[in-house]
Amino acid sequence: VGDWTFNLYKAPAKEPVVKSSFASTHLSCGRFSPTRPGVIVTARTDGDIEIWDLIDRSHEASLQHNVGPSAVTALEFWGDGTPNLQLLAVGDQQGTLHIFEIPRNLRRPLPNEPSLVDALLRRELSRVGYLASRAQFRRQELSVKEAQDEEKKRVQEEADAKAAAEEARLREAAEAEAQAIAAGEVEAVVEQAKEEEATSKLEAADEQAEAKYRALEAAFREKVGLTVPES
Can you tell me the mean pLDDT for 81-92? Predict the structure, then answer.
């Protein structure tokens, strides 16, 4: 008994095989029936007691009774050893003792009730074991999936890094090519300027040579008398 629920355990399970529904207030204590293995009495801090018959139904209490306004702090069965009479002593926080007689259907054992309770606990134990194995399998699945996701992430990151490196290489190559083209264009302009300068020099030299030739020709003509006098 603890907090808002009570729990039943059966070895070797580490988890409860039977867990009650949540109460509206804290539970303070509990007792098993001395004559019925499937009956449990629980006490609450709001002054109520509840009697649970697990053979009848395990999702809710079969009987609920308000003892008083104070929290119930103690429960104890008393009887003559037979199902004919069974009393329940209830103590509350104020120190008041209350005596109740347990109803006949909740004190007289059912035929083969120990076997029924054992079967109930074994069935719930199997259920808990199945849920535990499913949880373990699910954790393994999640672990494998996480590993696969991590591997996919790593591969994707490597692919992205290679793509980025290739893109950077292509960009650098394009920039180098553009620089080379630009440098080639400048060199071509320089060469063209040099060629034009050389052509200009040649043309100037030709003109000078032509002028000297004409001067020599004029001097020769004048010397041999071939000069035509100006009118």
Answer: 88
